[in-house]
Amino acid sequence: MLANIKKYALEITVFFLGALRLLVSAWLPLLDKTEARYAEIARIMYDTGNWVTPQIDYGVPFWAKPPMSTWISAFSYQIFGVNEFAARLPSFLLQVFLIVFVAKALDFTKKQTYWFALVLFTIPEYYIHCGVVSTDSSLLVGITLIMVGFWNSLKENYNQRAWKFVTWVGVAIGMLAKGPIVLVLTVPPIFVWSCLYKGQLVAFFKKAFWLPGMMIAFVISFTWYYWAEVRTPGFIDYFFVGEHYKRFFESGWKGDKYGFAKQQPMGMIWVFLLLFSLPWIQFVIAKGIKKKNELIKDKWGTYLWFWMLWTPLFFTISKSLIHTYTLPSMIPLGLLVMHYFENYQKQKAWFIGAMVVPVLVFIGFIGMNTFYTDTNWQNTDKHLLKEMTHKEVTDCYAWEFKSYSSQFYTSGKIKVIDTAEELGDLMKQEDPFYILSRNSHYKNMPDVFKEQLTLVGTNKKSQLFIYNP
Fold it and tell me: Which end of the chain is less packed: N or C, by CB atoms within 10 Å?
C-alpha cells in the first residue's frame, strides 16, 4: 500500500489540494465587500430571472462589469441552491478547465498535466481564485484561450483554422467577463513578440482570421452590449469611458457608482506579483537570468515572458488596483516553470517550499473548526444574522448602510433606513423588527431610539439589535 501511495503521490497531492479548496469554499462565509457583492448580484439575477442586466440591488443596474461571472454563478444556484459553495464552485471549475485545456493544447503527457496542476495549485493567487466569486476567473479563461490559441495557430502541424477560432472565442469570453481589458492584456504582448521574429508579424496581420473572428466575437459578446444599453441607457458610456479609462488614469476618480477605488502606491502591482506567486516567481526569475543569453532563441519561452510580464507592466502606473489584477500572469508563470524544469524529481525542494501555503490553509481549516469557534475575524454579517432567532420577528432593517453579505444572507429582504424620521415612523407602528448597524454608523442614531433597542449580537464591524415594544 505504501508503495502505491508513493507511486501516486503526485496525483494524490493534486486531488487533495483540489478537495481542500472545495471544503474551504463550502465552509467560509461570503466575505464583504467584493465577493459578497458578486454573489448577491448573481442571486438577484437568479431570483428575478433577468439574465440581461446584472443588478446590485433590486431595480438598480450594475454597470461596472459584464455578466459572464454572474451568469455562471446564477446557473450554479439553479443546480445547487443559493449558498456559498454554489457561488464559488464555477471559479473552481474554470480553473480546473484551464489546467486541462492548456495541458491538452500543449500536448502534455498525463504526468506533466499533474505537475502543471500542482504548480498552479501552489501559486497563492491561482489557488485563491479556485474558490472565490469574482470576474477575474472568467477573464483568465478568455486571456488563456487567446494566448494559447494564437500560439497554436502558428504551428504548421496543427489545425490552424480551429485554433484561430479558439482565439476569437477567447476574445468574446473576455469581453463578456470584464470588457475590452481582455484585448489590452493580450494584443500588445502578441504584437511585440511577433515583431521579434521574422515572419511572425506577417502571420499576426495576415493569418489572424480577422473578419470571421470579429464576426464570432460580435455574435457571442457584442449583442449583449447592445441589449444592455437598450435595457439601461447610459451603460456604454459609463462602462467604456468610466470603468476602462477614468478608473485607471484619473487619480481620485469620483464617478465610481459602486464604491471607492482601491488606492495603492504606484508600482504596487509588482509587489503583488512577487508576493502572490511565491515561490515560483523566484524560480523562473533565477532560470531566466541563468538562460538570458538563450532567451531570444527560445520563441516559446520569450512568448511566455511577454505574456507574464505585460499585465504588471501595464498596471505599473495605475494606483487603482488590487492583488487580483495579477491573475492573468499566473498561467504563463506556471508554463514557464514547466518550460524550465529539466527533471521534475530534482525539483523537490521547490515543491516543498511551494506547499507552504496549501499546508497553512489545511492547518488553519482544521484549527478553526476544532479549536477556534470565534467568527468575529470574518468580514461578514452571516453569523450575526443567525442571531435572529425570534421566528415571529420577520422584518430586518439596516441603519444607514447594508452590507452585501447582509443582503445575500437575508435573500435581499433587508431594507435600509436612512433617516431618524424613518426609524421613528417605523417604531410608531409598534411591530417588532431587527436592525443591523455598522459601528461607524451607530453613532449617528439618536439616543432616544438607541434606548428602545436591545442588543442581540456583535461582530468586529456591526451590531444587531431587536426592537420589541
Answer: N
Choice among 45-54, 250-259, 304-313, 366-375 with the minimum mean pLDDT: 366-375
**CA R_g for the chain:** 25
Give the residue among 96, 105, 93, 33 at the shortest CA–CA distance from 69.
Answer: 93
pLDDT reading at 251 higher than 80? no
Which residue do the cell numbers 439553479 mark?
78
What is the spatial distance between Cα 402 and Cα 397, in angstroms, rounded to a whole number?
A: 8
One-letter-per-residue 3-state SS of 255-307: CCCCCCCCECCCCHHHHHHHHCCCCHHHHHHHHHHHCHHHHHHCHHHHHHHHH
Q: In what order do the strands lie in the sheet with 415-417?
A: 415-417, 396-399, 433-438, 462-467, 454-458
Total-model pTM: 0.91
Q: Is residue 253 within 8 Å of 309, Cβ to Cβ?
A: no
How many angstroms from the chain centroid is the CA of residue 140? 9
Indicate the residue type of 106.
L
Cell triple for residue 243? Answer: 470603468
Q: Is the pLDDT of residue 2 over 60?
A: no
Query: Grid coordinates standing for 438?
Result: 455598522
Residue 459, all three cell numbers? 461582530
Is the pLDDT confidence value at 49 over 70? Answer: yes
Work out the average pLDDT over 176-190: 95
Question: 360 pLDDT band (50/70/90 cuts)?
Answer: confident
Burial of 186 (0-12, 13-18, 19+ CB in 10 A): buried
Domain residue ranges in the chain: 9-368, 382-467
Number of Cβ atoms within 10 Å of the Cβ of 71: 19
Question: How far from chain centre, in Å, is Cα 99?
Answer: 17
